[in-house]
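Side project, low priority. Logging it here so it doesn't get lost.
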Amino acid sequence: MKKFLLPLMSLFLATNVALAQTTPSTPVTITKPTEKKPDASSWGIKFSGFVRNDVYYDTRQVVSARPAVQGDLLLYPTNVSNDVNGNDINAASSLTMLAITTRLTGTVTGPDAFGAKTSAIIEGEFFGNANGSEDVFRLRHAYAKLDWEKTQLAFGQYWHPLFVTECYPGVISFNTGIPFQPFARNPQIRLTQKLGKEVNLILAAVSQIEAFVSPGPTGSVALAAVTPSSTFINDAVIPNLHAQLQYKGNSVLLGAAIDYKELRPALSVASAPAAATKVSTNERIKSVSFEAYAKLTTKDVVAKVEYVSGQNLYDQLMIGGYLAYGAAPTITYKPIKVNSFWIDVAGTGKKVVPGIFFGYTKNNGASDVNAVASYSRGISAAVASIDNILRVAPRIEVISGKFKFGTEIEVTTAAYGTADTNAKVTGTTNNVTNTRLLFITSYSF
């Protein structure tokens, strides 16, 4: 794979190709270069954003990406955990109020450069960059763009290309459809070539940061305890590589993508847990993911659908990851594969907007049995694991000017069972359900 890295990066720098980067609610476009001399008085930064408050009630304890306890980024309900009397400890409801998703965005414009129109976005919110840092203002997006007539080059931190800004779930919940929808923001270089009036080719080289990182062994010592970190993709040297083809018609959006990721989980293997002697290792975990999506816009309805067949998508806040095999000094790795599907249908009204979301994801395990360690979310080898997750979430939004009320009923059921040594659940499963009643207010400016 390394032999293809330099040619690909050379292609990036040589072709001035780019993907238009916009906020999720704005369609991706490639801006034509300025034909008239720009007015310097319009250059600078303009601020926008919203003040949002979330109030939600959960019928049981849940697993969240952030915050860790009953958080906004809900993933799935926790498994049953019975006490000595046979009562489920996790069958405890909770009520949460948060305003940490309040956001501030700065849109920057300036003079042309290299014959291209220039712009940038700086965006932050009070979500914090790790569990325990909630209410702390953190960087969300920071990227700059060069726009030519048919190409664009963009640098900085933005949505991972698997999160398609023109086709993502319109749910009210801040979780935006995870764990059925890939969800990550990453440092990257993005390029897009406009192949025709309605077709774009998207290429990207992506790294990892913050909560959107892969798991691996602590201290980069094989078989050590699990820790999420950007170290594992950094040590692999090869960035996460992405290619996507997108068709954009007047009322139809179609797209397909392929995504390649390589990690180096460990730098060494210890011959025994307490051994001082270690053996270096260069073993990699390689994974490939595919994505296809479509969006149809009519006068009364917007319908979106997406399918993902992915390996090792922990960093995308989905279930799964990878397994370790063997014994010192030879440890190898295999990715866990998951298939995911979602559909979202919403009205197009300006004042009252109903909608409904349906999502399903399935654990397909790894290709080999007899794993000795798991670096994953919700799935492990030879212990209790998730077989599948199902969610239905109807919603309604009421809008007046810049103010919005929204409410949503999010029902998420996780099927738990005992996994084999390849992390695939093959026996009897037990369905565990959480219902989240959500109410939000949002004032945009």
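Brief comment: The domain at 2-29+45-101+143-444 is CATH 2.40.160 (Porin).
Revisit when time allows.
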